[in-house]
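#data-curation
PF: Archiving a pair of folding outputs for the training set. Convention for this channel: one message per protein, sequence first, structure tokens after, nothing in between. First:
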Amino acid sequence: MALIHLQDKVAIVSGASRGIGEAIALAFAEAGAKVVVSSRKQEGVDQVAAKIKEAGGEVLAVAAHIGHVDQCQALLDRTISEWQRVDVVVNCAGTNPYFGPMLTIDEGAYQKTFDINLRGAFELSRRVTQTIIDRKGTGSIVNIASVAGMRASPLQGVYGMTKAAMIAMTRSMAMEFGSSGVRVNSISPGLIDTRLAAAIVQSDAAREIVTSRAALGRIGVPEELAGAALF
């Protein structure tokens, strides 16, 4: 049973085809929200949408590449067309195409990391916020950042840069948007067992280092973040 009730609220969750995004989308649906499940591939969002429908939830599956501004706008337009409003955005879409020294990252991987991890979240957030202000409503933006944005992580320099920028963006948006009734917060997970973290999770040596530093002595799972996003 959901402890938070979000009936009649509309939530867009990007990066929702698996992992943390999927867990958050399912949690919002369980809490009664109408959920827009979004990710790059239609097949992936359809699978998550099917789970929500099976549980009796209301869901819209929209494929969108969050790193492309026109697709951010199209995602918003599709949501407004279907449900006439957006109350919540969870910016969970993320990528880490390069695991290695900053000295040798190529321009393509660098730009992709910034476009998806930062620019997409910025563009979608400000567009949704404007619609909330226009209808004189209230809302919430949740940015999924990372501890890599708070402390240096080996071989994740550029990824960490994008997450540090996301944390700074969250603080600035919270200051700017708060007076208009829009809360902005970020969640900074440690190592979570997802495909994005596969390079670390599947390495015995790396996993041992991470778990030895974790208070619970283990790697986290996506479902453990859902409650924070709901709040």
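PF: Second:
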Amino acid sequence: MKIYNFDRSAGKEITKFGSQFMMSRITQTNSSVHIGAMYLDKEGLIGFHQAVTPQLLLIISGEGLVRGEDNELMKVKEGDAVFWNKDEWHETTTEKGLTAIAIEGEFDPELFLNEKEEVEEREETEA
């Protein structure tokens, strides 16, 4: 399991065509992918199971806990992206609720995303 960052700080300012917005690129693939929205209410749970394909879970709002095969619980919040490899056991839980986008298929999240620890280290050195 790896945790990446796609919040505003990971984005790039887009000004082409008079635009004024930030864009955080997520992934690119030439193969088939499935994309779905997931809504976990209070005390929500996506039970412990194996990933059928590589899976990227983008936390859009709320917060929760994720774990992979090592059983280490890691806190995630809005702007975090969690990646699990094919066949990796994983689970997602939340006390307060969480909304996420799941991307499932063959792709490499490291084409555009930086691991969360790398982003936090970069922010500390810039401060």
